[in-house]
TrEMBL record:
Region (Disordered): 1-22
DNA-binding interval(s): 44-63
UniProt-listed SUPFAM superfamilies: Homeodomain-like, Tetracyclin repressor-like, C-terminal domain
Keyword presence, DNA-binding: yes
Keywords of this entry: DNA-binding, Transcription, Transcription regulation
Domain HTH tetR-type: from-to ranges: 22-81
Protein name according to UniProt: TetR/AcrR family transcriptional regulator
Compositional bias annotation for Polar residues: 1-12
Length: 217
């Protein structure tokens, strides 16, 4: 009688995207991020594809509609900003200096690209967005808590106060070209940061803003 043989289980391969496909996706997100900041979320998708150096078919293969692309840009900006906060938390030394470095880095990431999320019709409760928001809120809160515990950051400000200031101060005013204010961004951010130092010289109206306050505004 022939012994029964046990078949080896089939090993499933995890398909990884090709390197060129990953680069194309990254180029699209980078180009979209730049153009959303410069022209707003309604910029034509074929213009984004042109700046990214890819064909329209490649763009739509990665992002079937505008909402999917805007959501990816928002998540990308939030993830990059969260990494800046993680880097700040890994640093030692003066707690307020750490907060300052994070704020200036966040401005360089063009966090104003988050603004399309406010006006867009896509699902603002998408799991990717929720996860990105929770991560950045937790990390920035930790950066601020360290400065507060050191007695260097006024106690009446919240994460939302910092993030809305970074967004507003890093985007051009109506009628101004995107690049026209680049040389003023860090100057104005430093003025804002000086106003955050403790002891506070005035009482702020209202209450400290949270990220939830910004979402509901």
């Amino acid at each position: 009688m022939q012994a029964a043989t046990t078949a080896n289980p089939v090993q499933r391969r995890t398909t990884r995207p090709r390197a060129d496909a990953v680069r194309n996706r990254e180029r699209i997100v980078t180009a979209a991020r730049e153009m959303f900041v410069e022209h707003g979320p309604e910029v034509p998708l074929d213009e984004i594809a042109r700046r990214a150096g890819v064909g329209n078919a490649t763009l739509y293969r990665n992002f079937p509609d505008r909402d999917a692309l805007v959501r990816e840009v928002v998540c990308s900006v939030m993830d990059r900003t969260a990494r800046a906060a993680e880097q700040a938390l890994a640093e030692t030394g003066d707690a307020f200096d750490v907060l300052e470095r994070f704020v200036h880095t966040a401005a360089d990431e063009r966090i104003s690209a988050l603004c399309p999320m406010v006006s867009s019709t896509f699902d603002q409760h998408h799991p990717d967005l929720e996860a990105a928001r929770e991560r950045i809120e937790h990390l920035v809160q930790e950066v601020m808590d360290r400065a507060k515990e050191a007695g260097q950051l006024r106690s009446d400000v919240g994460v939302g106060d910092v993030m809305v200031a970074v967004a507003q101060l890093s985007r051009p005013p109506a009628g101004a070209g995107c690049g026209s204010i680049d040389r003023f961004v860090h100057r104005h951010l430093q003025l804002f940061l000086d106003g955050l130092r403790a002891p506070a010289r005035s009482s702020l109206p209202g209450t400290a803003a949270t990220m939830e306050d910004l979402r509901q505004a």
